[in-house]
Amino acid sequence: MKRVFIIHGWEGSPEANWLVWIKKELGQKGFEVIAPAMPDTMNPKMDAWVSHLANTVGSPNEETYFIGHSLGCITILRYLETLKENQKVGGAVLVAGFGTNLEYEGYENELASFFQAPVDWEEVKKHCAKFVAIHSEDDPYVPIEHNDLFQEKLGARSIIEQGRGHYNDKEYPVILDAFLRITS
Fold first, then answer.
1. Buried b / exposed e across 155-173, counting CB within 10 Å, b at 16+?
2. Packing angle between helix 71-81 and helix 46-57, nearest 10 degrees?
3. Measured distance CA(13)–CA(61) in Å, rounded
4. For 6, 12, 146, 165, which has the most beta carbons within 10 A of its beta carbon?
């Protein structure tokens, strides 16, 4: 059975926004869906988040997929860096994600633990060949340049929308459709 792990973002939860909707949709389509509550969402630390994800996933394989929102995306990428040489996953959809520190004034250190070293893009690609990056041009938190970064570094299929902000509403069929495309 194909498994999908839905990873929420900073200050988020698996019960927030569109995560509940997509979990239900994918469950009805026969996926085993796991949406863990990530630790200390108000003060996230990379080691704790990546360890929690690794423990939740157990043994990944090519029937293992990911959907991340915001900080959940970099968590997925950092997790993929830790996989053993022969471990591969099926794919990942990165929604409003970022691959470098956002460095907003007053928040420079909030997410610093996720960026103490640059992402090893080549290592990430060894473990996952299918990526989709979904961003909105009017996201107040994540600049659209991160979509370009994911295209360049991961070969991600790009979806750029307008009027979606940081993807905090209840349903986004574009995310479901993008996910189903990488799993077929």
1. ebbebeeeebebbeeeebe
2. 70
3. 25
4. 6
Per-position b or e across 99-137, b if 16+ CB within 10 A of its CB: bebbeeeeeeebbebbbeeebebeebebbbebbbbbbbe
* Tokens, residue 38: 């990530």
Strand order in the sheet with 157-161: 32-34, 3-7, 64-69, 91-95, 131-136, 157-161
- Greatest CA span in the chain, whole angstroms? 44
- Is there a contact between 107 and 146 (Cβ–Cβ < 8 Å)? no
DSSP code, position 94: E
Q: Which pLDDT score is estimated for 113?
A: 95
pTM of the model as a whole: 0.97
Convert the pLDDT of each residue in 149-170 to its tens digit.
Answer: 999 999 999 999 999 999 999 9
The CA-to-CA distance between both ends of the chain, in Å, stands at: 13
